[in-house]
User: Fold these one by one.
Assistant:
Number 1:
Amino acid sequence: MTNMTILNVDDNEPSRYVRSHILSHAGFEVYEAGTGGAALQVITERNPDLILLDMNLPDVHGIEVCRQIKSSPVSASIIVLQISASSTTAPHAKMALDSGADAYLTEPVDPDVLVATVKALLRLRKAERDLSAANERLLQLNQDLHRSNEDLEQFAFAASHDLQEPLRTVISFVGLLQRTAREKLAGAELEYLSYIIEGSRRMRVLIDDLLRYSQIGQRREPSQVVDLNIVLAWTIENLREGISDSAAQISADQLPCVIGDESQLGHVLQNLIGNAIKYAQPGVPPEVHLSAGREGDFWLIRVRDNGIGIDETYFQLVFAAFKRLHGKEVPGTGIGLAICRKVIEVHGGRIWVESKRGCGSTFCFTLPANPIPSPAV
Ligand code: ADP
């Protein structure tokens, strides 16, 4: 308990002297005051860690001094240990504690008990200080993380945006070369050229995806009321070809209205339903069902399919950007679920998957429920 300071407030000089002596001997730095007014003055000048406060002071009552200490933001965190000579202990103790005192002792105070009480209270004070310092560090780290995340997002956005132009040039000129030099090139050279074309097309898809991903944090349409039933109808329209080719059955309960960005939420439904069709069991027509329910202040929306399912090991991984559980045999870049996660998080919700390999998957996400009229679900 080094460097801890105590203000000893007592108008009775001999008893003040004895207590100061006991506390100095125990290793504390002690200041003194004989009146309430002097005590408030020393508090402003010295900002002690603990105040030993006698109830009966000549100018202001100890209870009032305590109230003033605890009501000022600069001194509210100082620990007050009140001491009373009164024989009416219980009412005084209650008054002292009600006025903000942290602890209470009655005369005669045993020196060992005084030192032990002061030490116990200061341990609390230290723990409180450590906690608030740790909290501040955490806040600072959080701000730094937020800033570096924003920088990274800005960088990904700028990089993917600026890479589009030179890549377009490469793709057009390689195409031109393929058309004009076809006769002059040998078989192996033509093969190399087709690898370049294939590679650069793939790169274009990846860059476009990265741009879409980084745009979610950059651009967001002003929030509006979004009827997810309407968004679902558009999504089914957009996926019409895939749905009819795979003979997929899409069904849905009544979905809620939420506040958000319609086009981004459309991407979420499109990615989830598109995946449900893409990752169907071989030879089994996909069945996709959307349901919704209220969970406290949130809507919980579930997209269930009868597809190949996902092993529990990959429940987190599938939401990371460019992470796939499939090779080239299934088209995709691995960005779809990362986009879903970002959109849902930007909207204040969470997304996760529940699944068992071979038994279908259910993608669940939450969105804040707002006080707007929603069809009963
Ligand atoms: P992509 O479909 O382009 O690979 P996603 O980010 O949409 O990228 O999905 C990541 C991975 O999660 C996919 O490669 C796939 O292995 C797995 N996955 C996504 N949705 C489903 C689903 N409904 N059923 C089974 N696996 C899925």
Note: The CA atoms of residues 163 and 290 lie 38 Å apart.
Number 2:
Amino acid sequence: MSGIAALLLELGHEVTGSDKVSTVETDRLQRRGLCFHEQHRAAAASNADLIVFSSAIKFDNPILVSARDLGKPVVRRAEALAAIMGAKRGILIAGMHGKTTTSAMTAHVLREGGLHPSHYVGAEIPILGTNAHWDSRGQYFVAEGDESDGTLICFHPEHSLILNIEEEHLDFYVDLAAIEKVFARLIEQTSRTVFYNIDDANAARLCAKRKGAISFGFSEKADYRAADIELRNFASVFSVYRQGEQLGEAVLNVPGQHNVQNAVGVIALATELGIPFDKIAASLCKFEHARRRFEIKYESDRFLLVDDYAHHPTEIRATLKTATSIGRKRVLTMFQPHRYSRTKALRNEFGRAFDDADRVIVTEIYPASEAPIPGISGETISNEIAMHGHRGVSYQPRFEWIHRDVGNMLDSGDVVMSLGAGNIHEQLALLAADLVIAEKLRSIVGEQGDVRLYEPLSRHTTLRVGGPAQFWVEPRDESAFAELIRYCSREGLPLFVVGRGSNLLVRDGGIRGVVVHPCGGEFDKIDVNGNEITAGVGAKLKEVAYVGKTAGLGGLEWMEGIPGAVGGGLRMNAGAMGAQTFENVVRVRYLDHDGNPHVKRRDDLDVHYRNFPLLESNFAVSAVFRGQPAPKEEIVRNLKASQQKRRTSQPAAKSAGCIFKNPDSCPAGKLVDELGLKNSRVGKARVSEVHGNFIVNDGGATAADMLELIDKIKGVARAKRGIELETEVQIVGED
Ligand code: EPU
């Protein structure tokens, strides 16, 4: 519709328009004189001489109702376009696939050939400036015809370029015969030459008998033929022959064999209009195609992200073929089916369309204006693909999560494609933006570190629940950690530190921003110096106890019962066997929010039960613990006692340790036990029968299950005992 509005404005008409939403397009048109309303109001019809409407507009739209009441002329978009085209010598590009690119290419070649064509194409084309333009200097008008609603019959062009004909838009047409009828009418109404793709059986059958028709394609029989095609990265080089005679070589900077085929059609038309071949070849070489047609969204040595509008099985096959021809390693595809009717009609064909993709993630259907069809969903397609024998297909019904699934699979050398006519490109854009950040993070942590996108935190928490970390980053030394802190602060990215995840409940939506996991390298080191043990934050707390044993240092045995790392032990002032972390701490080394290092002695630190506030906005790097020289046997005995206590009083199942802090009046475990809540459950989350302060994951529990069970326990403790339980486990992330 924006193209029609633009043309009418350029022709000097007064144009008003309405839509449910304003867009960059409506803003641009407003600057060119459009009077725009973000609402469909009946009053809009009263001052108009003509009302043009899109086929997406319903019959009972207030403007249409009012126009009919007032007896105003009302025409469909295609009828308006056909009328505008009627003022010039029309060239119509028609077919199921590739018409936007081909009509843009035609307009571009004619423009470069000095013919000053006017044009109308179905997308924003950077090289043409706008999707529609009226040039009063030229005679020709190039337009993309829309076959979806039968309106091709409105056109009476001088020339038609027919690209391909097959089953599509079965919400409108009964069958292929009905589609062909419409094309036959267009061919009949074309006053001069019909150009047709001879490699397309249906187009050839319909057009060949037409007098004076000119064929193009790869076939030996084609009037205009492309041969010796060499596909290079994103370009194709090929020779062009006219009736066996070589016209020359052409370079097309748009990938894909199907685009070579369309380009020969454009060459045929332009040659017949009298443009010399070298001029045609020179302009083809400069051609850049439309947005969302193999549009590169991100490119580096490691990854290539490409968006394409492909939504029909034939288009998907062609686009994936192009993606594999680029010669990278794997092709990962996110696909958003378009329309329930197309999904239903072509489900078998969709099942076979993804053979060239290594991995396919299908999300929910983009309905366009359609109502759902019972039993038809994105899963219909993922099932079809799997039934066809593809081993790498999955279904992700949550649209906003699809980029995470693909991002977490990413490996160096991958091509990621977003395919569909809806809004799937938004997901690819999110992935591209995150990749820019991920690559920066990678440069900070260097070769020895690790960066993963959307890493599921269920893999990094002892409870085994939780959504993904947007950026999972493992620095191996203090300077990389400091640089990460500075980078996040500069970029306004939240930064959260996860140790062994033993006291952590991450919500199912995961954690936004950078999740730092200091581990390996100097973070895992434990050194003994006299009675002091220095441990990096990544080391296990129980390791400190065992190193103590080897060095003959006691008083640390209680740490054996803590599953977490030194960092978590500090942050939570973790405790067991009546002892707690800071009873053994001598000094803590940490980085502040500017990444500067500090060392503080125990006496200068503010520490509470299960809380060390300094680490709310600073980041621990290492700590020095003090042990007391003790006989080995005594240490071993204490370690065994701690182990025994843990094994007999705590569950072995997946848990996050104690869920609640012990209230003053009674240990939380005892309270839950007395309240009779052991073994109570929500989903797969269950209160342990061994210890009332543990909630265990019976396999497949969600954070939502866990949180509901926690709330339930708190509610009962409040109601029956008047005790306000406070969680000890850290609850983080988004729903
Ligand atoms: N109890 C019951 N029923 C239960 C659980 C406990 O009656 O289901 C009774 C016990 O018999 C005992 C009392 O409650 O008389 C306290 O229980 P426990 O000795 O197991 O200690 P806790 O206070 O529940 C604390 C730490 C644990 C640590 C143990 C062992 C807290 C919140 N918890 O548990 O730490 O492992 O001592 O020393 O301070 C953790 O913080 O994540 C954690 C597991």
Note: The first strand starts at residue 16 and ends at 18.
